[in-house]
Amino acid sequence: MALPLPTSLSPSKVSSFKDCALAFRFSAIDRLPEPPSLPAVKGTTVHRALELLFLAPPSERTPERAQECLRTALEEMSANEQYRGLELEAPAAAEFAADAARMVERYFTLEDPRAITPIGLELMLTAEIGSLTVRGIIDRLELDERGDLVVTDYKTGRTPSQAQEQSRLGGVHFYSLLCLKVFGKLPSRIQLVYLGSEPQVITTTPSEQSALGTERKVGAVWAAIERACEHEDFRPQRSALCNWCSFQAFCPSFGGDPAQAVALAARPGPQRQLDLTAGG
């Protein structure tokens, strides 16, 4: 019996499948619950603060206003299920807020937000490639001084090495393809803005050729997912990412049984919220 196909592909799903097909299945097809990730929740908080900053008039986009926006974002996160799931004690919560504040502060060493003209913040774009639906959320879509599109993606993780840069740009090339499909034009520039301890902006210029290459890669990944679903054949791939994987208890590479994950996926919603490290 073939497994159901995902309803769409996004940059994160493409990356997930390429990193480990089995983890992709557990997440995107079986939809197993995953414990909240502190780095991911912190990234969401910083993204929200910068979104609020760009909702302010250009003249008010100051470092002081950005910290006010962060305080608002932190207040919003206090009611967020993912944040609450971290169960941070007071010292850890204070360090969470302080680290987010440092990231927001670093942002001003990379750009002058007063000079930026955003036309979309946390913008969801959806397009069709044949029978496949592709979608993605662009952190910031703006117009440059010539009226051309610019795609910006904020990153709160570690700045990649020079050898890793091209692979990290894969996601924004995906967004570039979405812009071409939705707006009929490519961005003049796509960039990753890293806000970690080594702040940096990595920029590239998309082209018709790069967009075509991205479309082909996405099509190839989708074809591989279709085959894997048809044959129920999702194989694990060992890598350093395994150290952060929520599904080790079900992974044969760690002595787990994927059948237990299938059984967990079949349970009613409330009963699915189990300790994944215990394998159910």
Description of the molecule:
- This protein is α+β, with helices and mostly antiparallel strands.
- The chain has a domain at 38-107.
- The chain has helices at 11-19, 21-29, 38-55, 63-77, 81-85, 90-107, 165-168, 170-183, 208-231, 258-265, 269-272, and strands at 117-129, 132-143, 149-155, 189-194, 200-204.
- It has a 5-stranded mixed β-sheet, sandwiched between helices.
- A hairpin with a 2-residue loop joins strand 1 (117-129) and strand 2 (132-143).
- Helix 3 packs across helix 6 (90-107).
- The longest helix is centred in the C-terminal third of the chain and has 24 residues, at 208-231.
Shape: globular
Helix content: 40-55%
> How many beta-strand runs?
5
Judged by helices, strands and strand pairing, the structural class is: alpha+beta
What is the string of helix and strand elements? Answer: HHHHHHEEEHHEEHHH
Order the strands across the largest sheet as they lie in space: 1-2-3-4-5
- Major sheet description: 5 strands, mixed
Helix count equals 11
* Relative strand content: 15-25%
Q: For the terminal residues, how far apart are their CA atoms?
A: 24 Å
Unreliably modeled segments? 270-280
Computed over alpha carbons, the radius of gyration is 20 Å
